[in-house]
Amino acid sequence: VVRVTDGLAVKFGHFVTIQEFRNQQVAQRLLNADIVNVPTAYRFVQKEEIGYIVMDYVDGNTLDLMSAKNLAEELGKVLGHIHQQGATKPGSLGGGPVSGVLWPEHEEVEFSEPDDLQLWLNLRSPSPVHTLNLRRHTLSMCHLDFNPRNIIVNGNCIHLVDWSAAGYFPRFFEHIVYRFF
């Protein structure tokens, strides 16, 4: 991420995608800025293999593990607010293929309905005896990279960045992802 003006920054790289741009736009539109701020994403540009997102620059301090522990109650409220945003179709917030550590890197995975998600996961289970039943789990907005490096604090304002892996999934997916770090 590079700051280009007082108010704008550009995130760029091989893994910056149109899906991340759309996810960020949806999150910014749906989430209450009094609880968590999402930088406005203005434009996505793809040049060869590099994606560029032009967005608001966020001034503040990126959290580390110790400062995140000190803000645990506030961060819990942020995560709770995010999870209150529901959906009926699993997948990326803005549509298109899912991304992140839970999904294959070189395969475009999309779901039409919750049963598709369940089937996709169960087909990849290491044991046919251990399968998931997701029917009792509602779909919630999940950031799926709720990590101190993606949280910027400026005074009392909490900003959440990097929406590349975000989607509508059962809330427990938020916890599964930490097994990969």
UniProtKB/TrEMBL annotation:
<protein>
    <submittedName>
        <fullName>Uncharacterized protein</fullName>
    </submittedName>
</protein>
